[in-house]
Amino acid sequence: MKNKLSSGGLVYSTDAGRMCPACRQPVASCVCREARAVPTGDGVVRVSRETQGRGGKSVTLVRGLALPAPALAALGKQLKAACGSGGTVKDGVIEIQGDHAEKVTAALRAQGHNVKRAGG
What we know:
This protein has about 120 residues and is of the alpha+beta class.
């Protein structure tokens, strides 16, 4: 009997491309993506700056946004444009290259979020 939590399995097919490891469907027609719940938080968006593991480069992190993945990606794009820098959205955290905590905090407050500055 095969263990359900096994990390093995099909991740790429030459016919369909990338495969979802959870439902084993092509990523474009994944059925489990919609079933994932929106992350819940305490209603406070935390903006911090981090340099660990990035070769001394600073990155502004935005955590605690209870938004679905497409809305989080759109907000990340808006914040990157407002700061004039690059970045990404990973695991529900928006990462913006550089120290832009003040600009990000102001932009999020203007959109009606409850924002706190965290860390250094």
